Amino acid sequence: MKRIGLFWGDAYIPNPTIEERFRLVGGNTGNMAFIRSLEGILKPVILPTWSVGRREIYDPTDFDAFVTTDLIWITPDADLKHVRETFAGVGDRPLIPISVGVQARRNATQVSLHPDAARLLSEITERCVVGVRGEFTADVLSRHGIKNAMLIGCPSMYYGMNPDFRLHKKPLPLNPKVVANFRTMYGTMRLSEKFFITMAANGRWSYVEQTRTPFTLETVDRDAPQYAYFKKWFDESGSIFFDIEAWAEWLKRFDFSIGARFHGNVLAVMNGTPALFLNVDARTNELCRYFALPTLDMQKFERERPLSYYYDLADYREFNRIYPSRVLNFIEFLKSNGLYDESCADAAWRTKSELSGRIDSLESEVRALRDELSRKRSLRERLFGDKPSA
Asked: CA–CA separation, 53 vs 365, rounded Å?
């Protein structure tokens, strides 16, 4: 098995404050979702981010490759200096970026990268295939001459690596349990966003916060009554999770998840709860498009619509159809970078194949027994002219 290094996290902090907890997960608790998946898939050695380039902590020659998730949020003005340092810190080994995402406003069509960022990505792709989130990012990279890339979406969608996963949506209960999430509290809320938060507060939905950016009076354009109403709901209904397993288990109690957080909704989906993704930026949009996840532009959220309308929009038929191909494509990406453990994978698929074969055999036996029973019943009717009692 190859030895993979994954740069993630910070130093251990005993009894951390909430600010320190957020720092330990990279500022957003949703990051735990894709790190959990990568740990399960790659079985990497976790190297704290502060250890980059420190030979007393790790020797690059002890590893076959390194993986980074530091390129999931590339803005046009980002020079990626910190990733350049990481690249230098792995020696001659490949540094494989997973789920590269260019960040832009929802309707952006043309985005340019910082020259230093484009140069770095070009150098990185000389040693590996880059995994990108979706078509938008792939197009931006291609226009900068970076061609050695594959669309893979986000690794959080591959937790368990089960191509047979399907989301089976049930009718919405009369009194549904709903969980909401929302974007980072930057700038002023748009009218449609206020409609969304109002519906959530009126419905007393549960709420999950993923960042530390505060909700302030300026967030609602200094509307004091509205601020007080929203703040009361955030405080009374809000939860923050720093334990990914506890978060995933908690989500199982809900009938519906809705909001602008990709990973908050993904955790719900992968635990069997349908979600509607409210699109606020290019990254979320391209991920939802890649996986055929049901999405609605936040600006189209209307207060006059009932909850059932939004639940009906969460249609998972296309997702269920294409998901197996997305898993297999991700496996091809791993293979292209030498990250796929053939022996373990083959054993897993053999076990699955054997189980499937055994199930098929049992189903055949049941059909044969039913046919035999039917034949004997018909024979009895002909001989004795009666029908056996049920």
From this structure: 61
pLDDT at 379 over 90: no
Give a yes or no: residue 170 inside a domain.
no
Residues 118 and 185 reside in one and the same domain: no
pLDDT at 175 over 50: yes
Name the residue type at position 129. V
Residues 63 and 94: their CA atoms lie apart, in Å, by 10
In a domain, 298, yes or no: yes
186 and 223 housed in the same domain: yes
The verdict on 123 and 250 lying in the same domain is no
Residues 190 and 299: beta-carbon distance below 8 Å: yes
Q: Which two tokens stand for residue 376?
A: 């004997």
Domain count, the chain: 3
HEC-encoded secondary structure of the chain: CCCEEEECCCCCCCCCCHHHHHHHCCCCCCHHHHHHHHHHHHCCEEECHHHCCCCCCCCHHHCCEEEECCCCCECCCCCCHHHHHHHHCCCCCCEEECCECECCECCCCCCCCCHHHHHHHHHHCCCCCEEECCHHHHHHHHHCCCCCEEECCCHHHHCCCCCCCCCCCCCCCCCCCEEEECCCCCCCCCHHHHHHHHHHHHCCCEEECCCCCCCCHHHHCCCHHHHHHHHHHHHHHEECCCCHHHHHHHHCCCCEEEECCHHHHHHHHHCCCCEEEEECEHHHHHHHHHHCCCEEEHHHCCCCCCHHHHHHHCCCHHHHHHHHHHHHHHHHHHHHCCCCCHHHHHHHHHHHHHHHHHHHHHHHHHHHHHHHHHHHHHHHHHHHCCCCCC
Evaluate whether residue 258 is within a structural domain: yes
What confidence tens digit (pLDDT) does each residue in 45-91 have?
Answer: 999 888 999 999 999 999 999 999 999 989 999 999 999 999 999 99
Contacting residues for 173 by C-beta, under 8 A, at least 6 apart: 255
Provide the residue range defining the domain that includes 12: 4-162+325-340
Examine the domain organization and report whether 303 and 196 are in the same domain. yes
